[in-house]
Write a structure and sequence with these properties.
The chain is an alpha/beta fold. 40% of the residues lie in helices and 22% in strands. It contains 15 helices and 18 strands. A hairpin with a 2-residue loop joins strand 10 and strand 11. The N terminus is likely disordered. Magnesium ion binds next to helix 7.
Length: 424
C-alpha cells in the first residue's frame, strides 16, 4: 500500500484541460491557477472522484460509495489503486478492473494504472451488503404490500424439496395465530398453491387492481394470489422471462393486499428472473431456504442463498424438510441422512427454523387440498405450529406498529410545535 506521505512527495502540475471532464467543481475552481503544482493528495482525490463512475454491476452502486476503493497511490503519472472485492474470485473482477483502468487512464496526466485486488473479510463484506440492501430499498418502486408487513420468500436451489408445501402450511399456521397472511404464488409456470390450499376461483378486479382470494383460518385470514386463479391449471403458460417477471410485479403492485402481517412468497426453484425481479421490486424480502438432508441438496440450497445475497435478499433462516421418517411401528429412519439443515444454517449463520419429517399425510393432504397445518391435534400440525411460533416470536417478529406510529406521531407533533414556536 502506498502511504499518503509517499503521494505528497510527488506533486505535479494539473493541466488546465482535465477539469472539465472528470472531476468535481472544486477542482474546476483550482484550474484558474494552473501553474500551481497540485499536491499528489489532490490527484489521489481526483482519481477517487473519477472512480465514482465505476459501478459494481451486481451491487448496483459505485465502488467508491460501497467502500471498495481502498488506497490510491500516485507517483507522477503512475497510479496504483487498491480495490477490495466481496470475494477475490468475484466473476466480475476483470470487468471491474477494466473499468477502473479505463476511467483512471482517461485523466490526462495518468501514464500507468495498476489495480491491486484484495478480498474483503466477513465483516467488511457484511457492511457492503448492508449498504447495497439499503440502496436497493431507497431505489425500490412502490408496491401494494404494506410497509409493516414482514415479507418472507420460501426458496431453494431445486424443485421438489417442499417449498410450496412449506409455504401453504406455514401460512396456515401463522394465520391460526390470528394473523393476516398474504400468500403470493410466484411460481408462475409451476403454480401449486391453489391446489395445495384447495382454493379455486377467479381473481376479481376492483378499481383495476386484483383482489386476492380470501380464506378465514381460525381467528386469522389468508389472502392468496396465484396464476392458478388467472389461468386454468391445464393451460400451458408460455410466457417469456420478462412477462413472467411482470406477473410477479403485478401481483405486488396491482393488487389489493390490504393490511397484512406477513406476506409469504412461494418461489420457483433456482435463482432465475423471478428471484432477481423480486430483489428489485421488494428488496426487504427475507429468504427462508428450504433444504432436504442430502449434502447435494444442501449445496444447491447454499447456491440459492449465495445468489440471494448478491441480489441483496437477506437469508433469515433454514427449514429442513423430509428430515426423517417414522414408520407405523414407531421406528424413525433418517432416510436421507441427517443434520443437513443444521449444517446449512450454521454455514449461513442463520437459525434452523424447523425440521419437517417425511410423512405420507403431507402428500395426501396436498393432493386433497387440505393443509396438514390446519388438522388440529396431528403431529404435522404441531410441527408447523411450532415453526410459526419460531417465525413470529424469534426469527421474523412483527415490529410493534402501534407503538412505532405512536412514537412517530409524537415526533411530528413535537416538530410542529417547535416550528410554531419558531414562527411565533
Ligand atoms: N415432508 C414431506 N413428507 C412427504 N411428502 C412431502 C413432504 N414435503 C413435500 N412433500 C411432497 O413432495 C412433493 C413436492 O413438494 P412441493 O411442496 O410441491 O415442492 P416444491 O414446491 O419445492 O417443488 C409434493 O408431492 C409434496 O406433497
Ligand atoms: Mg413449488
Amino acid at each position: 500500500m502506498l502511504p499518503a506521505a509517499f503521494a505528497r512527495r510527488h506533486p505535479g502540475a494539473i493541466g488546465p484541460e482535465f477539469a472539465a471532464t472528470q472531476v468535481e467543481s472544486h477542482f474546476v475552481a483550482t484550474d484558474s491557477d494552473a501553474s500551481t503544482p497540485a499536491p499528489a493528495g489532490d490527484r489521489a482525490e481526483e482519481v477517487r472522484n473519477c472512480l465514482r463512475a465505476v459501478v459494481d454491476p451486481e451491487l448496483g452502486d459505485t465502488i467508491v460509495d460501497l467502500g471498495m476503493v481502498r488506497d490510491i497511490g500516485v507517483e507522477d503519472g503512475d497510479v496504483v489503486v487498491d480495490v477490495a472485492l466481496t470475494i477475490a474470485a468475484c466473476p466480475l473482477r476483470s470487468q471491474i478492473e477494466r473499468d477502473v483502468v479505463g476511467h483512471v487512464r482517461s485523466l490526462d496526466w495518468v501514464r500507468n494504472v495498476e489495480v491491486r485486488v484484495v478480498a474483503m473479510d466477513a465483516d467488511e463484506r457484511a457492511a457492503v451488503m448492508a449498504r447495497a440492501r439499503w440502496k436497493a430499498r431507497e431505489d425500490a418502486p412502490e408496491t401494494a404490500v404494506p410497509a409493516s408487513a414482514r415479507v418472507l420468500a420460501i426458496a431453494s436451489g431445486k424443485g421438489g424439496v417442499g417449498k410450496s408445501s412449506v409455504t401453504v402450511n406455514l401460512a396456515v399456521a401463522l394465520a391460526a395465530r390470528g394473523l393476516v397472511v398474504g400468500v403470493l404464488d410466484a411460481d408462475i409456470w409451476g403454480f401449486s398453491v391453489p391446489r395445495l390450499l384447495g382454493m379455486e376461483g377467479d381473481v376479481e378486479a376492483r378499481a383495476g387492481k386484483m383482489v386476492p382470494l380470501e380464506r378465514r383460518v381460525g381467528a386469522g385470514t389468508l389472502r392468496v394470489l396465484s396464476m392458478g386463479f388467472l389461468a386454468d391449471e391445464e393451460q400451458a403458460i408460455m410466457w417469456r422471462g420478462l412477462v413472467l417477471n411482470r406477473a410477479v410485479q403485478q401481483f405486488l403492485q396491482d393488487a389489493h393486499w390490504g393490511d397484512l402481517d406477513y406476506l409469504l412468497i412461494d418461489l420457483p426453484p433456482g435463482t432465475g428472473d423471478i428471484q432477481m425481479g423480486l430483489a428489485r421490486l421488494l428488496p426487504r424480502t427475507e429468504l427462508l431456504v428450504v433444504t432436504t438432508p442430502p449434502v447435494a441438496a444442501q449445496k444447491v440450497a447454499a447456491r440459492a442463498a449465495d445468489m440471494a445475497r448478491r441480489g441483496y435478499l437477506r437469508v433469515t433462516g433454514v427449514i429442513e424438510n423430509m428430515s426423517d421418517f417414522t414408520c407405523e411401528h414407531g421406528t424413525t429412519y433418517a432416510l436421507f441422512g441427517s443434520g443437513g439443515g443444521e449444517r446449512l444454517a450454521h454455514s449461513l449463520g442463520v437459525p434452523l427454523v424447523g425440521s419437517i419429517p417425511l410423512h405420507p399425510d403431507l402428500t395426501a393432504a396436498g393432493d386433497a387440498g387440505v393443509p396438514v397445518a390446519g388438522a388440529d391435534g396431528s403431529e404435522l400440525a404441531a410441527v408447523f405450529a411450532e415453526m410459526a411460533r419460531v417465525v413470529a416470536e424469534e426469527v421474523a417478529p412483527l415490529v410493534d406498529a402501534q407503538s412505532c406510529s405512536a412514537r412517530l406521531i409524537e415526533r411530528v407533533e413535537a416538530a410542529v410545535a417547535r416550528g410554531e414556536a419558531d414562527a411565533g
